[in-house]
């Protein structure tokens, strides 16, 4: 793989083995400056392991990994100041007040500011960004679970990271907080050119946030593309819904455009409330994972048959 200008994450043939068990198999992908990547996959697929290797918290077994042009296994303090991390579980700083802690943590990033990137974020602006203005002087122990999760996000981005890793970031968020978080991610990517890699089990969230989606199954990348590009891989049917003379109808077809054209030729302006529903990201995700697991199971059976001959 050739690393081009603007590549922030470069992963080639990444492998991870625990004992005799391989949990990552030749994982390969790139991420560009300001791109939002969402990593999807069933539990045990290797999502958290992949992110921990990119963060420099876990040593890979083989392959090449570069984050901001540096191997995370050898990243120094200068490199780490450019990387933000939001873990699955919130950190317990219960005796601190919100603004007090963010200002304190931010002070550690000040020596790593540059002419292009001023570090850290102003504490009050950061608090406003994550929706904790009313709690800025509150003890962290008094925050609700969702507010503590917002505090986690604030801690992860206090140093104005150029790349941000988010592992299940909206766990515990209510719908309003989740929407505000999505806006924040878009602002970081669009305005600050922050590259974001996150994991989530919320497929609706993935579709709203992702420029690209990576689907990981069995320790392998089985799909890589936008939600629309992935749905085009599924040679499925579309569901057409409409009303005619007050009656509701539903029809499933593989040629929705032709069907709708013929529908209007037959009924004209008597057609109302027309809707064509194609495969959702959830449909696509489930189909691709099942196809992979079915193929893997067939391969396992063939291997067993060869061994027992």
From TrEMBL:
Keyword check for Transferase: no
SMART domains linked: AAA
GO MF, one example: ATP binding
Residue ranges of coiled coil: 264-291
Top-level taxonomic group: Bacteria
Residue ranges of every copy of the ABC transporter domain listed in the record: 9-243
Keyword Coiled coil: yes
A GO biological process held by the record: response to antibiotic
Lipid bilayer topology: Peripheral membrane protein
Keywords assigned: Antibiotic resistance, ATP-binding, Coiled coil, Nucleotide-binding, Transport
Annotated localization: Cell membrane
Family: Belongs to the ABC transporter superfamily.
Name of the featured protein: ABC transporter ATP-binding protein
Taxonomic lineage of the native organism: Bacteria, Bacillati, Actinomycetota, Actinomycetes, Mycobacteriales
